[in-house]
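Hi team,

Filling in the usual template for the complex we talked about on Friday. All components are listed, including any nucleic acid strands or ligand strings, so the model treats them as one assembly.

SUBMITTER: L.P.
PURPOSE: interface mapping
COMPONENTS: two
RESIDUES: 1163
SEQUENCES:
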Amino acid sequence: MQNIEDVRKDYVEQIEASETPRELLKAPTLKQLYGVIGTLPPEERGAYGKAINQLKLSLEAAVVTREAALENATIVPIDVTAPWDLNASPIDLLPTEQGTQHPLTRELEVVIDIFTRMGFEAIESRQIDDDYHMFGALNFPENHPARDGYDTFRTEEGYIPPAHTSTMQHRILKEGIEKLEAGGQIAAVSYGRVFRNEDVDATHEHTFYQYEGVFVSKTASLADMLGTLRAFFEAYYGQNLHTKTQPAYFPFVEPGLEFAIEKPAALNGKPGEWLEMLGCGMIHPNVLQAAGIDSNTYRGFAWGGGIERLVMLKYGIEDLRHFESGKLAFLRKFV
Amino acid sequence: MIISLNWLKKYTTIEESPDQLSERIGARLVEIEQITDHSHVYDGVVVAKVVECRPIEGTDHLNVTKIDDGGVTEGVDRDEHGFVQVVCGAPNVRAGLAVAWLPPGATVPSTSNDTEPFVLTTKELRGVMSNGMLASAKELALFDDHSGILELDIDLHPGDSFARVYELDDQLFDIENKSLTHRPDTFGIIGFAREVAAIEGKAFHTPDWLRTTTPSYGEKQGDIVTPSVTIDEPELSARYQAVVLQDADGTRQSPVLIQTYLARVGLRPINAIVDVTNYLMMVSGQPLHAFDYDKVLAVGGGRTDIHVRRGRDGESLTLLDGRTITLVPEDIVIAVGETAIGLAGAMGGASTVIDGTTRNIIIESATFNLYSLRSTQMRHGIFSEAITRFTKGQPAALTAPVLGEAIHLMNEWAGAKRVSEVADAYPSVESPRPIMVSSETINHILGSDLSEEAIIVSLQNSEFNVEKKDDLLSVIAPYWRADIHIKEDIVEEVGRLNGFDTIVSRLPLRDYRAVNPDEFDRFRSQLRQTLLRTGANEVLTYSFVHGDVLRKATQEPTNSYRIINSISPDLQYYRQSLTPSLLNLIFPNSKQGFESFALYEMNKVHPKEHGLTDEHVPQEIDMLAFTIVSPQQPGAPYYQAKKYLDFIARTEGLTLVYKPIEEEPRFAVTAPFEYRRSAYVSDAHSGVFIGIVGEYKKTVARGFKLPEYSSGFEIDPRGLLEATQKRAALYTPLSKYPSTERDICFQVDHSVLYDQIIEGVRQSLENVELEVIISPVDIYQPDNGATKNITIRMRLTANDRTLTSEAVNQIVTRVADHLHETIGSRVI
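RESULT (copied from the run log):
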């Protein structure tokens, strides 16, 4: 064993001085050491094998360190304050016509713009949150079966990549209490990235974008909600639209609905073709109460829809996976 | 969940077409994902009697039969009695059976959805003519039993249409369950029919047996010790009932009609005993379980003391599907004595399973804590019809009427007699509480204009008890509506039953004030426009990365929040900065033939090193990362990225300062960058720190297979915004006098930085009342490498005079002298 330690020291020294340290690993003396195993009595082989392995690992580590050092030595600092390099010429930008904005951020800007003009403040949604904001404050008790529908990821610490932008709802409500008490209303949209632990295919993504609206006042009604949503989609598609609803169950609203529009002319829609656009409902009194809003005095409605759906319909995009693929072939179509 | 239209029609009249009905259900109850039309699947299938059956010589299993179809089928050969000859290989074929006959020309129902459905003919089998076939349950597309032909009820008339007698000309509605998570009642066909009636504006009458919560349980015909039932902890189960029945015939089948109904909604008929439990579950939504009584006695050492208790750590239980699972205290088990015999609500145990030898049974009718069952479901992966219903929260009151009907049907279908009292553990009986709500409130919340009468009628149609008390309605929900607790639930009910789409939409009344776009949103939008002008492409990449991406970027995985339940290894860690995600995209795009491109992303990052917010959730940091690659060009790639950053700054009216990095920094965001060929960036005017720009470490470039010529930056867009908010006035009045330009070339030592020259020029002109614009012209290094020549252009403007050439010369001299003194430069 002492022998092995000596070999190690010797080789490490050589490696530290070598310009081609990896070559040393192929040295015949090392190979001979490995060959010794077979000649040993069986009871010694285990310990010897272990020691040889240790040796291998430590020499490999020494080579990596030496290689990095050699590589580092070749790095020449530059004048980081100069506009271009020595003896080089001024630098050009790429051609402007090659530049594109991502279709999802572009559509988000359109959506936010309409809601802003409708009097809704916009707040970006969090990408990591806790169980309370994702579920608890929204009337989903622990182990509630409705949680199943969300397929949430979790981190070691128990944080959740939010599965809906409603993760901001409790914050928006708390923040808005002052406005309500001053006789005003809460009117806000939250938007951003949400996550579901799903297998990815052409129509499923684990990462996508949502926009979510919240409105609270003393007189908010379901008729107000339907009117607000219709107004948004009419502004978005630039035409009058037929809408319809379908009862749905989300623990944070009561009643809860799915909202659909008749496919607009801009999308070559024909009468009788419907597009499900979002889920919505009157905010459950428990959700208002959890945020400290008196549900006997105030009522509200909320909705949430997906951005990808709007974009896919608009451009006829066939595969949800393109959005986060970073493929230039895809991105450069959105000039 | 599958709903059979014919089954619905047993409880309410339906006149609309399936499509109309589906649309109405969609608007007022739940989405119907699909309607499967079964009305022609059984065309031509005829009920026949086997009048004669004998084996075919020389075959081991074929029989030739003569069947009587009542003479209804045309175009087949008949013998002198009018019977038809059919060869059949089923082991159970025999004279006297009633069977389903597929005559020549009929399509085998199980193949009706195939691209080439199998159409029967007359053909010779072993020299014997055979007309069509006698069908098994599998061939009839009922359930997966191919062990023999389906034996029909014996009292049928030959020649009857098979579809008609078994009501198989059906439409199957596939329901999107998720929206009914809160409606256990609709998971029974009666409950669903009740909703259908109510949304059609018709009154519904629940069958008497289900309406009562105090059934009679029929006559007791024997004297067996009543099982003792104990719910060890009240939160495990709201109610547990059990009763012993004797002389149940485990070999009997349930009526064929019932078998076909179970089959069409996806349940395989087993035997009469099991079918009773399944049938009642489908009808009422209340799952039942039958234990073999004698096996329970054997397990319990002659006693039937049933306990509902928690699983014990390390305890194991073999389920009736053969799996042995290890229990935990979050599971609820049914135990007899100390021994677990079933996983409550999920699956019975193998030790007490009903089989052909079963004579005596215990029927369990119970409810369990739905949250516990849900965790059991996830832990053990059990997704049965029963647990699907239990996890919706069946009301405790429902167990009794369904048990009563089960006793009745067990007698009718399996000949079983009740021989014990009904044991009933029901720790806290809940009586329904009236909900007080005014029709005015209902109309306010809905924004509707419904009359009080219309509100009352719609609730009564679905069997709510409504009474007027002054201005208020006192509403009591029927016991099966476990979901009704508060006035909003009544509002939902009224809105839904009357149709939400009948409500006239309007915009909310509010005092409107213009809302300003969020400043950061506006700024980001502006940055995107700027970057678009530079020919860069915006990308969005996942917020999570594979551990390899972190390692390649020389970031420490321990600085990332780790996802523990991802189904994909690519989603292991929250990212610490955006640059690694961008670098990961370069090689795939290069491979696709793109050579010169710039990618950027604005998004959030979540390195652990930033800690938590006041709300105790991780800090989120907004970043903007940019990377550019191109084929080899003269000069260091560093300057390419810097050029972009300077361009962005200039469009925002900012001037950036680039500082060399003295030693290797230890931040996640700087990790991919080679510090000796990178710079820290801050705003010159405000001093706000912006980020890092540079080339990537060699190991990083190798890891991501980057081309030689690549560089980038990662900056804090909020910092950039802050700098624009603090920037100096952009505008100074125009001078009436012409400007003068002068180029100066400084020869300096190699170690002198470009900025030192610019800074020197500025300092030397500090007290001169001139507008000075300095721009670079040339940076030249002679072969010696010891010095470099930097040429700059000064554009000088005075706002009170035309500068004479003498004045300009003085200024140039002043600059040259100053620089000579400070950095030892020489003007050449």
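MY TAKE: Chain B has 22 helices and 38 strands. Chain B has six domains: 2-38+171-206, 46-165, 228-425, 435-502, 519-725, 740-827.

Thanks, L.
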